[in-house]
Amino acid sequence: MQRFRLDNVRAIVTGASKGIGLAVANDLADLGATVTIVARNDADVQEALQVGSKLSRQMFGVAGDVSTKAGRNALIDFAVQSMGGIDVLVNNVGTNVRKKTIEYSDEEYEYLLDTNLRSTFEMCRLAYPLLKNSMCASIVNLGSVAGQRALPTGAPYAMTKAAMDQMTRSLAVEWASDGIRVNCVAPWFIKTPLTEPILGNEEFLDKVLSRTPMNRLGEPEDVSGLVSFLCMPAAGYITGQTIAVDGGFLSLGL
User: Fold this and answer.
1) What pairs with residue 183 in β-bridges?
2) What are the residue numbers of the active site?
3) What are the angstrom distances between the C-alpha of 238 and each of 116, 181, 228?
4) Per-residue model confidence as pLDDT tens digits over 54-112
5) Of 94, 150, 160, 199, which residue has the fewest beta carbons closer than 10 angstroms?
6) Exposure of 227 by Cβ count < 10 A (0-12 exposed, 13-18 middle, 19+ buried)?
7) What is the pLDDT of residues 148-162, one digit of tens each?
8) Rounded Cα distance, 124 and 140, in Å
9) What are 138's strand-pairing partners?
10) What does pTM read for this prediction?
């Protein structure tokens, strides 16, 4: 059953101090991987590491902002120093500003592009030489069903997630000969700090559940299970895919 383990795998997970990112980091570590996590808030990173230590998880952490070039470079340097290399990159960092299209400022628009899309693209490029030297290289990007359907999430957010789908396909094809698999996981509404404010509106929550055949919100672990699988040897022939974790949302018709 080693095909379903991640022993000796070295992973980076961005945006990993809370929500989906933290669940992914914990799952990878529980499956045998050594994991480096990064998030902007150092206190959140240290808390995640303390919990992980108590559960014998092999984890390192650093505070940083991967939406900046300096932050990305520092993360790669730290991960290489801590783990000796990289086999898995999980691009989870992301954020949203929910507004009508004409209400976004230039700064908000650039902020969303930098955080959600440019950070992912540049992290992939930085990690490429290291992943190319790996025997089990995998990149998993965290997208959204908002990249495939018109939703009240805000156009810039949806645009970045749609672009991530295409980036995943392009890199998967371009880097397949280098032994690097690239996939994307697209969640629907998951219980995280990012969605908590909007899901606190009972009317909106009822609308979400009415469009979800499984009639429940997703949990971070619903997403992390798929992310972990895509990093395993058992998923070794899967690349270039965007897979929804949506309780049936995308399949629902009339």
Assistant:
1) 140
2) 157
3) 24, 7, 13
4) 999 999 999 999 999 999 999 999 999 999 999 999 999 999 999 999 999 999 999 99
5) 150
6) buried
7) 999 988 999 999 999
8) 10
9) 88, 181
10) 0.96
